[in-house]
């Protein structure tokens, strides 16, 4: 079977990493077209892998040498680009968010529905991380009993002043939204946000860290610590608590090095990964391989448009919860 | 210096363990008098260590051969017994609760204040656990920066049907109340309780597990998972999150054994301690040694009557929060 | 660039896994030809990926639709097959052993030398394992100081009665030979083998477990526990001890699950991987990607023929050490 | 029962710590007499606990206010002091070594035998460490199957230039000698010592680190890494490998702290204890409590004179093995 020819829209950190992975570590894919609003960057990236550039994203989507599309452009551009892929009937891997709000996200779900096929895959890469996949399998095995609680910790080293409380929900907690929906197999029914005193590293008016609490339809409670200026590194940790057992993963324990610290005291331990690419590189690779394999036969293999819509709906409620301090219900629309 | 002669009131599991520790592993103490409402049990315990019994707890407190008192009787008896110790002016180690409600607890604080001495020590043994003590030291060193969040997990293997949602607060979460006050060095200002779907192991009407949330005066948020029928063992875990670092302790990682499981698959790991005595035996021993050392010179060395009162006030708010689902403020009285 | 067309010789467990990896998870490779002495198996594997079969391995090596070769056939066939690849001047990835003895291995090194190119890569996959690679980087950073000791543990769940003491050296310890040479960057100068009482699971006359001791030219000592019937799972652990620090990796600590054991006691821990494919699947994938990338430009990227020869020489000394109980020196030949 | 009145001979670091423990953390003991060749130090220590001094150790042993003796004087003084205790017929806790050589140690064993009682306990405190005790229990439960191998690591932060290769055996490895005999329940039959290149922190002529190998009568092999200038802290780690399972303990994993390192990279881990007192303080306390409890009824409760003799014999063979590089057999004398 010939390689899947992929257009990549947006080659910032995420898109650039996807180009690298698709071009060097995934079987059966060729990145044929690069698009970026910064044409110089597009030219540089395309040159490094022998692709061509296209200055108009819609032209890239509709090009003859493109079989499928990866969208890593700014979130405001996603809706139009995904709809163009649906119009042409080709598979697309869209980084979160699906669109900028639940209403438009639901429209995309409906548009996909009208094609009669599943063409839109969302870039929730954690589903492909071996630890998350093992936890899902353990839950589904029934060994833990019915799940009652989920505890999540999500910490970043640092973020710029633009990264406000709402972005902490829509750009960061969105991953826990998908993790909770994936692991629990059900929808989130409400969101609440608690704000402790903020770190002095946060800009005026930004609540960092926050405790975000989801409640699912069946009554599972999910606690999420989101702390995007924790000054250490990238930490993503999850604990699943069931009636008969629990599992905790994402601790950084991969080997123990012993060295003297700056004060001469002996220290055991290791390095915390600085960022999400270091932590989740294997997950991204597995995600892209699954997507390419599925796209070569015209489908997807991972979270879909509905997952993107549900995440958008929960995040919208979360932003409201940040604003009001109330428990905000999540109501999902119908695609009928 | 001659040994401190101790009367132990109540020799159930906790009191019996204290008798054993005082009589065999603590320097400078002799248990001279045993009291229990079950006289046969008192006689048996007294016989094993060469002590005498006293059928009336107040007589025990006032006996000539008693220099100090350990109260491990039912909580309803504590108020009268502590006041009798204060009347006589001798040191007392009182298991939680100090009394059954905040009003009476505050009266005990005032009664102690009138003696002009600190005579009442509360049995919050975790303050003496080496891991908690190290965390306190780490916080106080400033290395973590200002503390913003505390995450606690408190799980028991099993509990009888009488152990209802209110007792989960007053008998279990009371330890996290003291841990939070101890580690953070400030009072808790409000309590909120979230109830996920209960485990099927819980009796009708009991919310097990629960998520309890404290907010301190300065704005630190404390999350507590309390789950008293978790079916595995005794797990007490704490994470302190500061502006510049975090520390997590209470993981069960003391040695790794590899064996085949019942299904023939290889398994690494170890045993979870079944109960609090296995987990905290060294802490109890250190607690009693500190108390005996202080009591021999007429004082205390550990959490005092105010700590008992504050815990009672927070727990009363917690019980209210269980009932109402609201954020319940904690207002502490004045001892002036 | 067009895909590298690969012939895979031998599709047992290892070769079959390589076919799967090359065909589904590696960029830029197509398995075009399958050879196995069991033609039915060759046909089955070839059919699953759209390749053709070739009943003669030398014909496969010389076929027009073959650019490079993976050798996973029995060790006795390697010499002739590698030499045929050298004759044709195409890259080859050869599973260990390079050949069955040091003399013939040295001949292969010389034959490769005469081609003027590096064409032979050995399948020592651990060099591509992220933990080994990180340890190598840590050593090379100088942070541990000069390395003085290396401790290795290598345990398998089970092995058949044919797997005798000599095979424990040539098939299992051979990996530690390469690990030691890789991490230390120098040759092994002598081998000694110590035999404790054997496990009752070992056949009569087989010394399982054994302690194998290497000494390098500069005086580093390497201890290896090899235990191929340990009944638990696959455990490969390494500790590097330097003048100023140490690093230990390969502990199984990737997440902590808590469940009740068969006796009702609570247990924390996780699963030990059953075999080397579960443990090293990512390493194999990285190894093959590196090899494919290099082979597409006619070279190799990993351990070479000399590494295969050196391992053969150390293993031959090891087999002698098993027999005699003496310290057996390793003398490496010259390729001039 | 009245307190055991203890004379402590030698109040250097070890003896001083014992005085502290006996006087403040052990039930039923009073340190009545202090002796040290440095009388000023004896006076200072005695003053701090209300004891008196005795400038002659034999006078201390025979004093009316002494019921039992702790010997923490230099090893050369032990023989005479232990024999004096035996002459008087009182219990003694003797720090290792029992005496300076196997011949004299055997004489002590015989002298004790003539008293008809067990009066001599050796200060091998690891037997009282909860981790070692749990490992012993696990071995004895049969869950691991027959033990085949023991791997020990013993590292110190630093040592002075006087601490030569022989002392590394007699002062450090002596603990592993006792650990091996304790865990395995049998005698060590031979010793071999391997010397890698020494750390540059070692004085000329001192082999630091070394690999020491014991073989027991039944064929178990014990590997010991002894490294007394490892520059990090105090690390004592043990792995027991049986036919059906293994257990590894002594890893430093008691809580995970995350902080930024000096280079700004995030680091997880904790502190390595600097010395043996920090690591084994609870074991010393348990050891002394056991000894005091037994001594109050005239006996011992722990390793005895024979264990001291056997350790001396193995260490003498070890020193010979350091010198010769050969496998040196250990032959134990008879006490008949």
From TrEMBL, chains A, B, C, D:
It comes from the Bacteria. InterPro entries: Gfo-Idh-MocA_inositol_DH, Gfo/Idh/MocA-like_OxRdtase_N, GFO_IDH_MocA-like_dom, MI/DCI_dehydrogenase, NAD(P)-bd_dom_sf. Residues 132-246 form the GFO/IDH/MocA-like oxidoreductase domain. SUPFAM superfamilies: Glyceraldehyde-3-phosphate dehydrogenase-like, C-terminal domain, NAD(P)-binding Rossmann-fold domains. This is Inositol 2-dehydrogenase. Gene3D superfamilies: Dihydrodipicolinate Reductase, domain 2, NAD(P)-binding Rossmann-like Domain. Belongs to the Gfo/Idh/MocA family. Involved in the oxidation of myo-inositol (MI) to 2-keto-myo-inositol (2KMI or 2-inosose). GO terms for molecular function: inositol 2-dehydrogenase (NAD+) activity; nucleotide binding. PANTHER family: INOSITOL 2-DEHYDROGENASE (PTHR43593:SF1), PTHR43593. Keywords: NAD, Oxidoreductase. Coiled coil: none annotated.
